[in-house]
């Protein structure tokens, strides 16, 4: 592996039958069956009232998992660079804009337009936490989580600064749902640091691996959970989160995650070293 | 950062297809903007529409990608020997060692907007509508990856109007980390109803031609454009160098820049630091210069804070229009042309210079040997990116 290791310090998770990182661990470990239940998106308390009113589903989903990850990590979000990655942002907002634009009176709302940009979640987050750190917003269709992870690992390798990775996907209403079926909302977030800390959960190494050389990608075991892995772009993170939920006391875990048809990601999770005092 | 060789580059905007047409228009101080409607959009304004997009045919093997955005991408790729250059790079480095990182804001969304006009009686989208290769934000990078048969990392950066500047940073980092040896970078954004009506809804669209740095500027004119650059780990005869990349966030407002340009200042200083250069080393600045009252005022303050007010600068958006997610790449390619030909392009459409703005804003072309240029791109959501480009 050529990229420097990263250290996971915080995790956020919200999706169908996955109500939060702590409340999903039994399911992720296979100790409880996964049961699909529609995701409830909380309002984003950190946003100023004006922005909170305008915050659509994409903002609520991305900020919910980002908030959970930074609270878990116990870090100041103002200090974190961010990598946001999503296949399509807010599907219902896109649908509404396209409906209006197809009508005889195609005047659209400025809030809907502002929320339609792919980097809306990143923009609102940096406003909410008052951060001028660098941020990017990526898309690689079904490989959007993989794109975010490889970009996070590359940023960490070159800049060696803590960062927040947020992957999130939301469904389209009909008629777009028929051509891009996504079952529900799903988001996952990781706080990553360049060196181990007293609060590190795991060491994470990432390496791109040509599909021709890669073993089959790891699956989730539980069929309902695996349907999220294959049915939601952010679900590609689930085997990694399962590895964390199982714990690493028994030794490192190597996993292969989906990214692009021609390129997979091999990751290695290991117990973090004890930091020097 | 280690300088990265730019071994081929091309651009297509309302100024024309390819570098020669662009250079000729810049030399003639000709704008590509025209007062006309896009499709049947009933908006009064000036747009920078690229000639020949509708007539561009994708190769048969890539037909599933067919939409305005990918036609514009293909029209651009066919210019300046770019396809040959990537083919040679693939032979040299191997398909798995070349990445594709492109910027766009709306990709092929027009295809969906038009499909919504033609929904079937049951509400479904018309037969033949394909989501992934057209509407999805990744589609333009999927298209380029497929067109060049590349097997390296690939994604789209979509941070509004800084998208295709930021991709230079992604590629440089991946090369520095040893994951790839070369990359195709750039960006494509094509005209669509969402952006025309969207900027109109925010009252950021000028009914007059856009006039960056003019006292009476009223907003932007939207254009479309595509640009591509081939970056390689080393080269015998580079056409220019990527010397530095700086990125930051405003953390201030979704659609209005920080009034003092705090994020922009951070991006420019970071770009200079990554290039190992001082402000005085920059010969010319290609401004973001959208011609909205707030952008130009904030950028004027930000550039003055970093460079003082002597460095010659201009916005080329009066010529190309604001090509949104493609703007960073388009202006990087204009900057490379400027370095190669010793041409600082004058900013077009200024009638009355804004006395509040203090920068050394060029209103006419100026010829001078140029070694280094800084190009600014700032976007919705407060994303800022500055590139430092150097002469070969």
Tell me what you see in this structure.
The complex is a heterodimer of chains A (277) and B (392). Chain A is of the alpha+beta class and 277 residues long. Chain A has helices at 21-29, 49-54, 57-73, 91-101, 110-116, 120-129, 144-159, 176-179, 223-231, 238-246; strands at 6-14, 81-85, 135-139, 163-169, 186-193, 202-210, 253-260, 263-270. Chain A has a single domain (6-270), classed as Thiolase/Chalcone synthase (Peroxisomal Thiolase, Chain A, domain 1, 3-Layer(aba) Sandwich), CATH 3.40.47. In chain A, strands 3-2-4-5-1-6-8-7 form an 8-stranded mixed sheet, sandwiched between helices. In chain B, 32% of the residues lie in helices and 21% in strands. In chain B, a hairpin with a 2-residue loop joins β1 (4-13) and β2 (16-17). The two termini of chain B are 17 Å apart. The chains are: A alpha+beta (277), B alpha/beta (392). The interface between A and B is large, with 63 and 64 residues.
Tell me the number of structural domains of chain A.
1
Order of helices and strands of chain A: EHHHEHHHEHEHEEHHEE
Estimate the helix proportion of chain B, in percent: 25-40%
CATH class of chain B: Alpha Beta
Shape category of chain A: globular
- List the helices and strands of chain B in order: EEHEEHHEHHHEHEHEEEHEHEHHEEEEE
Q: Architecture of chain A, CATH level 2?
A: 3-Layer(aba) Sandwich
The largest inter-chain interface, given as chain pair and residues per side, is:
A-B, 63 and 64 residues
Structural class given helices, strands, pairing of chain B? alpha/beta
Q: What number of structural domains do the residues of chain B give?
A: 1
Top-tier CATH class of chain A: Alpha Beta
Low-confidence blocks of residues of chain B: none
* CATH architectural arrangement of chain B: 3-Layer(aba) Sandwich
Q: Total strand count of chain B, please?
A: 17
Give the quaternary arrangement of the chains.
Answer: heterodimer
Cα separation of the termini of chain B? 17 Å
The share of residues in helices of chain A is: 25-40%
For the largest beta-sheet of chain A, the strand count, sense and barrel status come to: 8 strands, mixed
Biggest sheet of chain A: strands side by side, in what order? 3-2-4-5-1-6-8-7
């Amino acid at each position: 592996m050529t990229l420097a290791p990263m250290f996971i310090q915080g995790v956020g998770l919200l999706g169908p039958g996955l109500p939060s990182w702590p409340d999903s661990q039994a399911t992720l470990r296979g100790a409880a069956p996964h049961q699909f239940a529609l995701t409830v998106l909380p309002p984003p308390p950190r946003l100023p009232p004006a922005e909170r009113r305008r915050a659509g589903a994409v903002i609520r989903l991305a900020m919910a998992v980002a908030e959970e990850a930074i609270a878990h990590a116990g870090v100041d979000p103002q200090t974190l660079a961010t990598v946001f990655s999503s296949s399509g942002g807010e599907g219902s907002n896109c649908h509404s804009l396209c409906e209006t634009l197809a009508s005889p009176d195609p005047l659209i709302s400025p809030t809907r337009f502002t929320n339609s940009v792919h980097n809306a979640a990143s923009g609102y987050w940096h406003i909410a936490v008052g951060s001028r750190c660098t941020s990017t917003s990526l898309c690689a269709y079904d490989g959007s989580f993989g794109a975010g992870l490889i970009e996070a690992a590359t940023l960490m390798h070159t800049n060696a600064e803590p960062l927040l990775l947020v992957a999130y996907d939301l469904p389209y209403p009909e008629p777009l749902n028929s051509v891009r079926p996504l079952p529900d909302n799903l988001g996952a977030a990781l706080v990553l640091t360049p060196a181990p800390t007293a609060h590190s959960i795991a060491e994470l190494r990432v390496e791109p691996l040509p599909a021709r050389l890669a073993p089959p990608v790891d699956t989730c075991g539980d069929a309902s959970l695996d349907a999220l892995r294959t049915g939601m772009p952010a679900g590609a993170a689930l085997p990694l989160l399962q590895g964390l939920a199982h714990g690493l006391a028994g030794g490192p875990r190597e996993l292969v995650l989906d990214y692009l048809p021609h390129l997979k990601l091999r990751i290695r999770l290991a117990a973090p070293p004890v930091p020097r005092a | 950062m280690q300088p990265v060789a730019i071994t081929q580059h091309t651009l297509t905007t309302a100024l024309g297809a390819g570098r020669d047409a662009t250079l000729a228009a810049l030399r003639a101080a000709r704008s590509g903007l025209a007062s006309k409607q896009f499709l049947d959009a009933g908006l009064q304004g000036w747009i920078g529409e690229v000639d020949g997009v509708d007539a561009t045919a994708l190769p048969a093997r890539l037909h599933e990608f067919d939409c305005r955005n990918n036609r514009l991408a293909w029209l651009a790729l066919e210019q300046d020997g770019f396809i040959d250059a990537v083919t040679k790079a693939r032979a040299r480095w191997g398909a798995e060692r070349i990445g594709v990182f492109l910027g766009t804001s709306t990709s092929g969304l027009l295809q969906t907007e038009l499909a919504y006009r033609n929904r079937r009686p049951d509400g479904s989208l018309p037969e033949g509508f394909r989501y992934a290769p057209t509407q999805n934000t990744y589609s333009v990078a999927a298209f380029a990856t497929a067109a060049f048969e590349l097997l390296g990392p690939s994604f789209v950066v979509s941070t509004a109007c800084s998208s295709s500047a930021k991709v230079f940073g992604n590629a440089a980092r991946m090369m520095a980390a040893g994951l790839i040896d070369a990359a195709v970078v750039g960006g494509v954004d094509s005209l669509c109803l969402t952006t025309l009506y969207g900027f109109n809804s925010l009252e950021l669209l000028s009914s007059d031609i856009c006039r960056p740095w003019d006292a009476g500027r009223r907003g932007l004119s939207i254009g479309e454009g595509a640009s591509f650059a081939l970056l390689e780990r080393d080269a015998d005869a580079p056409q220019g160098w990527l010397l530095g990349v700086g990125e930051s966030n405003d953390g201030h407002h979704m659609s209005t820049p920080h009034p003092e340009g705090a994020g922009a200042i951070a991006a420019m200083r970071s770009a200079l630091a990554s290039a190992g250069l001082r402000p005085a080393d920059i010969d010319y600045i290609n401004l973001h210069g959208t011609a909205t009252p707030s952008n130009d005022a904030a950028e004027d303050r930000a550039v003055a804070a970093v460079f003082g007010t002597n460095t010659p600068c201009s916005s080329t958006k009066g010529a190309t229009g604001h090509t949104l997610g493609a703007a960073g790449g388009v202006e990087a390619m204009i900057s490379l042309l400027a370095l190669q030909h010793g041409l600082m392009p004058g900013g077009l459409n200024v009638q009355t210079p804004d006395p509040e703005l203090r920068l050394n804003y060029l209103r006419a072309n100026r010829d001078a040997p140029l070694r280094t240029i800084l190009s600014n791109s700032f976007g919705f959501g407060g994303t800022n990116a500055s590139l430092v480009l150097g002469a070969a």
